[in-house]
Design brief:
Layout lengths: L7 E4 L2 E5 H13 L2 H8 L3 H15 L4 E4 L7 E4 L1 H14 L2 H12 L3
Antiparallel strand pairs: 1-2, 3-4
Helix pairs in contact: 1-2, 1-4, 2-3
């Protein structure tokens, strides 16, 4: 047997983020664009924007700031609280897989 698991964060019984939404935020941070992040993840801009709105509404944190396009081009970036949140999330996730796998193997020996 193998173990599979998902981790997500909730607030007031509603999902705020899981790996997919965190992945979108990380991609926006890396690429500086919601559109580029959405394209990279195989989703529409509209879907990505809806995910961002849900994350922000449910968490009470403004995660993404956008700049309107034009001659200089538009873009998006994470706010300082958004950057800090990602830092904390990745710190939390670090080693979690290994810890769960170790506990699983201790209880369900092959």
């Amino acid at each position: 047997m193998d173990i599979r698991f998902k981790v997500w964060l909730e607030k007031g019984g509603e999902v705020v983020v899981g790996n997919g939404k965190v992945g979108l935020l990380k991609m926006i941070a890396d690429l500086g664009s919601i559109q580029k992040a959405a394209d990279n993840l195989g989703m529409s801009y509209r879907h990505a924007w809806g995910m961002i709105q849900k994350i922000e509404k449910r968490s009470g944190i403004k995660f993404v700031e956008t700049q309107v396009g034009g001659r200089e081009g538009g873009g998006a970036q994470l706010t300082p609280p958004g950057q800090e949140f990602l830092k904390q999330y990745f710190s939390f996730r670090e080693g979690l897989n290994e810890s769960i796998e170790k506990k699983f193997k201790a209880k369900f020996k092959k």
